[in-house]
Structures are given as structure tokens and as C-alpha cells.
Amino acid sequence: MEDGHRADGRGVLFVWDFDYTVVNCNSDEYVPAQFLGHDATSDGFRDLIRKNGTNDDSDLDWHTCVEIMVGRAMNEGGATPNDILAAAARMPFLDQVQLAIGEISEKGGEHVGQMILSDGNILFITMFLQANDMKKCFDEGIMTNIGELVTSEEGKPALKVEHQSAKYGGHKCPRCAVLRICARRRLWRTSWARCRWRGVFRPELSTSEMVRTMPARRSTC
Length: 221
Description:
Layout: E1 12-16, H1 18-22, H2 27-36, H3 38-53, H4 62-75, H5 81-89, H6 95-107, E2 112-121, H7 122-131, E3 142-151, E4 157-162, H8 183-187, E5 197-198, H9 207-210, E6 214-215
Helix pairs in contact: 2-3, 2-4, 3-4, 5-7
């Protein structure tokens, strides 16, 4: 979703990351690990990242590594495309986080919105949200990378991730990887940039305590 609908400068926007926030795992690692095993998946990512770091000609950014590991899950781990989707749907989460998201959606009113801003991919995120009846809570949309299951040139099932950094304003932060959605740039290009307040989530607070307002700040990435 390109823009929220509250452009009048009033309201509270809850912006959620996905990994280790909405879900209690790294989605890119969790899905292939269900078929390759945790150790083999961790070692696989480590080897790919090490190869990238020692080869100036390599184009193995993080999302290419994810494509490779999910491909291994299907072509070596015996997973079907439907198995990959099912694994994404059953990612673990914290009960209090799911409760907070639901209560904000139910009780927040017309001037409170929620969105997900993640450097993951829309395929895994959507499968999880739909399976857990949470997609409706994010009325301001999901800003992330395109992800889809395709058939490779070799006729094998594969994951394809199309990075969206350029679409969302690029990323020139010297502290982060180049191929990464810049949360600050993307958020400040929406109509919510004109809102006076933004909300903060703290798991130890009740929903009524959470839905308070605080001065918005333009922070770094």
C-alpha cells in the first residue's frame, strides 16, 4: 500500500517490523530450516555469506541467499511449494504480541492505524497473517519485498524475491546494507509523515496504556 488514508495530521500509527516482532523468529531462516534442519540452514547461510564476503564479483545479497536456501529445501529437503507456504503459516509468535495487535485494531478507533514495514518478503508475511487471522489488523498495509514461488529455467520450484529498496526511495545509510528497505525514507513518503503522533509498543503494557501518544521523531534507520 503506497499511502495511508489519514492525511489530516491527526492520529496514531503503529509501525511493526515482522521478524522477531510480529513473529518470534527470522522468517527467512525459519522456513527452510523446517526441511533442512536448523544446523544445516545456519551453516548454509553462513557459507553463502562467507562466499559473498570473499568474492568481489559475487551478487549474493541476503535475499539471493534466501532464494538459494529455500530452493535447497524444495530440491534437497523434499518440500513442495505448498509445504513452504504451510511452514510460513505456522511461524511461532508471542501471544501478547498477537493480543496487542488485535486489541489495537478492535479498540483503536478510526484515528489509529497499523502497518508492517519489513525487509522480509510479502509471500511469507501474508501466509502467516492469513493463517492467524491478523491480516485485517494492518489497515495501513504491508511495505516489504515482493516474494513468489516460481519455476526455474531448469524446471524446478524456486523462490524469487524482488527487492524493493529503489521503489521505496533507495537507501544511502552508511551503517546498513545497500539492498535494504530504508524504513525512515519509506515511512516519511507516506501521508502519515504529517501525523503529529506515533505510537510505541511495549509488551508489558496493557492495550489501554499502549494506545497513548508521543511526539513523533524523525530518527535514523
